[in-house]
Amino acid sequence: MERNGTNSFEFLSLTEDNPLLRAGLKMAHLRMLVTIEEHGQVSAAAAALHMTQPAASRMLSEMEAIVKTPLCQRASRGVVLTQFGEALAKRAKKILLELREASRELAQMKSGGGGSVFIGSVTAPAISLVVPALRKAMDTYPGIEVNVQVETSNVLARELLAARHDFVIGRIPDDIDPALFNAHEIGVERACLLVRKDHPLLENPPAKLEDLSQYDWVFQPPGALLRRTMEDVFLAHGVALPRNVINTPSIVLTLAIVTQTNAIAPLAYEMAEFVSGQHSPMGDIRILPTEFDLSVKPYSLIVTKDRALPPSAQLLYDLVLEESRSLTWTE
Question: Which has the closest alpha carbon to 170: 136, 133, 126?
């Protein structure tokens, strides 16, 4: 007897003859293992899955009893997966991803809508590429629902590996294996410095680098690419780094501080153009002319390797790529 090209014997062999399933491995186990790998702590994984730490520890013990080998080992700040845990987590991610795709496909079939897309982007291409692509997608694919997260590349790459995004626009972090992704370079992120409209440095532009370190600065958290880029400019020219620094990932808080103090903040140029000169408190912000350029390394369209995008996500991916080519042509 055939069923969609697979006979019933083959179907049974995949379910009933699987040692892990027979031993009691459940989907909840796989979710737990992937979450532990992502957070590096059992307690954090438990919180992410809305359960108590003792319950999470019991679930981990159940998994290790089922596979008959340790899946985690203690580290200086939590736990790391053993080679057996990594192997199982790699498969678990694919299984969970396929189930999410199946859920999306069934929901789209029931609703007759255009489908849901989950994407992430760093700031500059979110404005210059994602927004115009979204406008075209809404016209081309009625009923499409798009979920957009604007974050740093470090966050986006991990979200992509955790199957929370279809694709992202950003960079592959140095501490993640690039072999896990397919990346297509599409642009360079320009950046600039923001100050309030009556800032002393605006009196005699362009500002010199040595004049900047005496002011307060608002930076992204340590390790963020834009922050590292600005710090590298100081170091390359032998200029002291700013002493007074406020760290925040929030663009809104960054802009609020800049409007009310003499602090300086680096920001993606597209975002800076968007907020400066608007008829709002944010309109009190100005782009500070400088004697140096500030460019961040290129960003790419990134997907996880060996994964086919669903139709709605592929449509948006293609539209973003088309927008990037038109910008390159006009520039």
Answer: 126
Q: Tokens representing 119?
A: 């994407």
Give the whole-angstrom CA distance, residue 230 versus residue 154.
18
Taking the C-alpha atoms of residue 211 and residue 264, their distance in angstroms, rounded to an integer, is 11
- Which stretches of the chain are DSSP H helices? 8-15, 19-22, 27-39, 42-48, 53-67, 83-111, 123-125, 131-140, 153-161, 225-236, 251-260, 269-275, 311-330
- Phi and psi at residue 253, to the nearest 5°: -65, -40
Q: If we measure between CA atoms, which residue out of 120, 147, 130, 168 comes closest to residue 270?
A: 130
CA 24, 25, 27, 33 torsion-angle sign: positive
DSSP string, 164-203: S-SEEEE---TTS-GGGEEEEEEEEEEEEEEEETT-GGGS
Among the listed residues 21, 19, 31, the one whose alpha carbon sits nearest the alpha carbon of residue 60: 31
Cβ neighbours of 279 (radius 10 Å): 6
What pTM was computed for the model?
A: 0.64
Assigned token pair, 220: 């992204």
* Token pair listed for 173: 């972090």
Give the residue from 258, 214, 223 showing the smallest Cα distance to 267. 258
149 with 165: CB under 8 angstroms?
yes
What digits encode the pLDDT tens for the residues 122-149? Answer: 988 998 999 999 998 888 777 788 899 9
Tokens matching residue 313? 């996500």
Closest CA to 155 of 220, 213, 201, 109: 220
Q: Which two tokens stand for residue 26?
A: 């459940």
pLDDT of 291-313, one tens digit each? Answer: 888 888 889 999 998 778 888 88
